[in-house]
Amino acid sequence: MFSSAKDPARSGHTRLLSLHEFVLLIALVMSLGSLSIDNLLPAFGPIQADFGIADPNDLQLLITTYMVPFAIMQAVYGPVSDVIGRRPTLMVGLAVYLIGGVVATTAASFSMLLIGRAIQGAGLAATRVLTVAIIRDRFAGCEMARVMSITMMVFIIVPMLAPTSGSLLLLLSTWRIIFAAILGFAVLVAVWFYNRMPETLHPEYRRSFAFGQVSSAVRSTVSTRISIGYATAMALMMGCLMSYIGSAQQIFETEVYGLGAMFPLVFGCIAAFMGAASFTNATLVRRLGMRRLSHIGICGFALVAAVQLGVAVLYDGRPPLLLYAAIFAVNQFLYSLTVPNFNSIAMVPLAALAGTASSFIGAYTTLVGALFGLVIGRSFNGTVIPLSIGYLCLGTACLVVVLWIEKGRLFLRSQPEQGGAEQALPVAAE
């Protein structure tokens, strides 16, 4: 079990954290990011009407202005956490997020709302980098991939339910109640984390804050072929996800399929396929290895993306809903076989640099993904063709990058994947 006995910041207290609670808590911390995006999608229309926004594509700025600071600030939180620890750094990030939430909830203009979103993204960047670092502190190799997959399986429940909860909240009040509800949830998660999660940074990995050490860690990450290569592959895949999130409301709720109140149901069903993939990955990763599963995923993704574009063109950009949603759901399933494994593979050589490496990889992948998502999302023209083109181009580019990393040899299982849990502060398996 997790014990606070090795946490100098909390000596004198006896606290135990089981594997189940560890996974659930980490998943809920991670889910704050998804909740802050997906819960807001049903509010795009009311926000547009409230502030008199002429171009619906401008509403995608609610995603972009959140994601860019979210990406950049990850490069700060990781090195800081290597110095002062994971727990205090995460609490600072959550405090910044709460300030941004207050600004967004009380915004009197669209510009002020975007400022609030930017502050939220800057704060919540801590959750992205530190959840990965905490898991890497505890696990390595396939065990890390397995825990990541189990965590993602719990985490996926949030995008399944978020648009529905957002729609229900809109029935009670204005779009502002959505921000208020997320604030309340964030406070509960922060209190739980503060009271239950011990410090996971290994004492021997604690570093002094020096620019030379940070830049050295970044150079080590960039110069490690596996790490920077799989980080790039993950960034390309995240570009697909960001383009989907930015376009989903216009595709399903309003302009293409006009589902209206049924939009959360379709969004949730597609997210359910991602959850099923996380379960599949957690089940098979020990047997097949991270590389084999992720290589199967990216090859399948590129192939299905070609089918997705072909169907979109065949029906002049408006294919039957069930057909397109089914193809899209399959690709989201394959997406979830790649990204958690790509992330774990990239982190395998970087145990001693987990905080800084995770922050750099997180910032790099999120920023690149957000920019690709913005370009593809703003190309929306009332059809699904721009999104389908984006999926095919990014999926193919990702496959090319993986082929470069592996020197043309796919589906092999390398020795570092055999790594298991670390020894310090062990988590009890239940």
Automatic annotation (TrEMBL):
InterPro entries: MFS, MFS_dom, MFS_trans_sf. Its main location: membrane. It comes from the Bacteria. The chain crosses the membrane at residues 21-41, 61-80, 92-112, 118-135, 147-171, 177-194, 228-245, 257-284, 296-315, 321-338, 350-377, 383-405. It holds the Pfam family MFS_1. Residues 22-408 form the Major facilitator superfamily (MFS) profile domain. The keyword tRNA processing does not apply. It is a multi-pass membrane protein. It is found in: Endomembrane system. Keywords: Membrane, Transmembrane, Transmembrane helix, Transport. The keyword Transport applies. GO terms for molecular function: transmembrane transporter activity. GO terms for cellular component: endomembrane system; plasma membrane. This is Major facilitator transporter. It comes from Microvirga vignae.
